[in-house]
Design a protein that fits this description.
With 153 residues, the chain is of the alpha+beta class. The chain is 20% helix and 35% strand.
Length: 153
């Protein structure tokens, strides 16, 4: 396990809950049903009593090294759930792997204003309104391109 003196950047999806008329929230795509805040602390979602991430467990807050949205999105379509994509900074203890990492803490730094909707459940304008609300709620940037997202990370 590595502990970095500086945060490590990464990219991830979240499941979207709520709509433009409510207080939208984002949740992890994987295990658990935890609602993300601006700064998040990992625990063992499997239920073991150890600090996350643990090298002998799958716990921690996940992110990818590269912002390859098309490849990642196609694998997540099976979830049949509206999605949000963005950039995070991993802090504290971090387990690094080939395609990404999992960390003890993760801070949201930006969301991508995806050109359309991640799911047909939302009209394009409603999805954009939700992204605006989420961006303000978390105090983060809302960017128009993968390049801008990568530059912020």
């Amino acid at each position: 396990m590595s502990v970095f003196s500086k945060p490590i950047s990464g990219f991830r999806f979240w499941k979207l809950t709520g709509d433009a008329n409510t207080d939208p929230a984002i949740k992890s795509v994987g295990l658990g049903d935890k609602i993300w805040t601006s700064l998040n602390h990992a625990d063992c979602g499997i239920g073991y009593d150890h600090k996350a991430p643990d090298q002998n467990c799958a716990c921690g807050l996940y992110a990818y090294h590269k912002a390859n949205i098309s490849q990642r999105l196609s694998s997540l379509r099976v979830l049949n759930h509206p999605l949000v994509y963005g950039a995070v900074l991993g802090k504290g203890s971090v387990q690094v792997a080939v395609s990404g990492w999992r960390s003890e803490e993760a801070q949201i730094i930006a969301f991508l204003r995806y050109p359309g909707t991640m799911e047909p459940e939302y009209e394009k304008s409603e999805y954009q309104d939700i992204l605006e609300k989420l961006s303000k709620k978390h105090g983060v940037a809302l960017v128009d391109s993968i390049e801008e997202l990568e530059n912020l990370a």
